[in-house]
């Protein structure tokens, strides 16, 4: 079994759940009352960067659309400060395979942003990754909690900078659709199913599920599993210390089937859900006035980027509540993207230093749909109260979270389109009654990927 070295950072989880619920509850309809900070954000002495005139860098990430556009603004600021020229290289999932091809061809990017802990471990094991330099380490020590630093380390050596975080325990909802159906945000799974029934009976399907993107289905499962079985069991399954044929997995899949098994709950029914990619799952929830394609969409704080592509206003038309408690406590699952240098160059280390500073994060935070684990980022730069509250709760919680389970797994199991956990859960969405078959497939793929 491969050790991902993350469970030691996962101390407690109730504090973040409570903080997140409080922050989101406080973010009613006053999302735009605080003024948007001027370009440049709050006063900052600025991180010191070397001059890199004439140096050309490439940065690879799987980001597309607005997320890529907003990150490009960060790279432009780096160019302005250093004189370097930086090119964004769109990567494909699984990113480890993409990078392996680039490295085999003798043309690796200088820096890559990896969306899985498992991908970071693979990069280190393949001897692709460079340890962070002293300047980047100084920024990490100044701006990051021990938990987020540890997630970027392998074998006690710091390799990565967690530039972007995600709270993956949020459900966004269309305020008009909820009002029309007389539904209130649920606090428990039972209340969620009741609300879904009421919404669907009113003529608006309850949930927009991005079934074409398997990673969203892993997030559904993880939130249910964490709340239902608890953090210790979650850690054991994440490391494959227990099998996917365990009764705890059966219980979580059966619970998820209560939602996925009701075709009338899903926008477009089962076939529609399986054909819906993540961006569409969001936009179709916030178009159509009080008769959208669905009343709710589940995913992280980054949903705000896609809401911004509609006419809906966050804090008024688009509201959010924490993932309901399935067991005794509501779940809090986090994710993130870690920046890693793949070349031993001055430019790559300078970019890691910049990304570990509040200067870089504040540029993208201002655009919305972005959450930074950097505790030195001024919360005022976030564009509305909802995103500001999510950011504050993340920082206030310190190390009290659980990291995305599929992102801890080997990429062959937890991070590959059309394979492993992604494919098994897509098949489960197509046939939610086949719990045993889904478990058997998950275990076979996990055993192969973990090597045990």
UniProtKB/TrEMBL annotation:
Query: What are the record keywords, sorted?
Result: Signal, Transport
Tell me the superkingdom of the source: Bacteria
**Coiled coil segments of this chain:** none
Record keyword Zinc present: no
Q: Does the keyword GTP-binding apply?
A: no
Extent of the signal sequence: 1-28
Q: What family classification does the UniProt entry report for this protein?
A: Belongs to the bacterial solute-binding protein 1 family.
In its UniProt entry, what is this protein called?
A: ABC transporter substrate-binding protein
Q: Which organism is it from?
A: Streptomyces yangpuensis
Task: Identify the taxonomic lineage of the organism of origin.
Answer: Bacteria, Bacillati, Actinomycetota, Actinomycetes, Kitasatosporales
């Amino acid at each position: 079994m491969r050790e991902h070295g993350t469970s030691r950072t996962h101390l407690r989880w109730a504090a973040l759940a409570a903080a997140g619920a409080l922050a989101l509850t406080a973010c009613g309809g006053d999302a735009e009352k605080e003024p948007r900070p001027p370009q440049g954000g709050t006063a900052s002495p600025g991180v010191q960067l070397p001059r890199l005139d004439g140096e050309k860098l490439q940065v690879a990430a799987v980001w597309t659309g607005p997320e890529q556009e907003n990150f490009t603004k960060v790279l432009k600021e780096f160019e302005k400060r250093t004189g370097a020229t930086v090119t964004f290289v769109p990567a494909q999932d699984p990113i480890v395979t993409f990078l392996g091809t680039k490295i085999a061809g003798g043309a690796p990017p200088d820096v890559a942003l990896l969306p899985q802990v498992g991908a970071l471990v693979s990069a280190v094991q393949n001897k692709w990754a460079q340890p962070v330099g002293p300047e980047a380490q100084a920024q990490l020590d100044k701006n990051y909690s021990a938990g987020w630093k540890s997630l970027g380390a392998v074998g006690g050596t710091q390799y990565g900078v967690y530039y972007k975080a995600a709270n993956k325990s949020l459900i966004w909802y269309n305020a008009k659709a909820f009002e029309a159906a007389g539904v209130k945000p649920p606090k428990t799974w039972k209340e969620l199913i009741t609300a879904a029934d009421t919404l669907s009976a009113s003529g608006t399907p309850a949930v927009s599920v991005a079934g074409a993107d398997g990673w969203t289905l892993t997030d559904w499962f993880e939130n249910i599993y964490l709340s239902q079985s608890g953090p210790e069991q979650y850690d054991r399954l994440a490391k494959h210390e227990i099998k996917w044929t365990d009764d705890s997995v059966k219980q979580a899949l059966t619970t998820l089937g209560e939602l996925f098994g009701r075709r009338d709950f899903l926008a477009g029914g089962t076939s529609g859900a399986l054909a819906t990619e993540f961006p569409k799952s969001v936009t179709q929830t916030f178009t159509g006035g009080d008769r959208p394609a669905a009343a709710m969409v589940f995913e992280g704080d980054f949903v705000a980027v896609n809401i911004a592509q509609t006419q809906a206003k966050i804090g008024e038309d688009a509201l959010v509540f924490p993932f309901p408690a399935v067991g005794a406590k509501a779940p809090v699952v986090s994710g993130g993207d870690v920046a890693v240098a793949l070349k031993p160059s001055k430019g790559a280390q300078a970019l890691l230093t910049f990304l570990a500073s509040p200067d870089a994060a504040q540029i993208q935070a201002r655009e919305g749909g972005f959450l930074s684990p950097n505790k030195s980022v001024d919360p005022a730069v976030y564009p509305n109260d909802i995103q500001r509250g999510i950011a504050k709760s993340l920082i206030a919680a310190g190390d009290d979270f659980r990291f995305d389970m599929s992102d801890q797994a080997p990429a062959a199991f937890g991070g590959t389109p059309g394979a492993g956990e992604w494919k098994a859960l897509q098949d489960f969405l197509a046939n939610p009654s086949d719990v045993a078959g889904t478990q058997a497939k998950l275990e076979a793929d996990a055993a192969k990927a973990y090597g045990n």
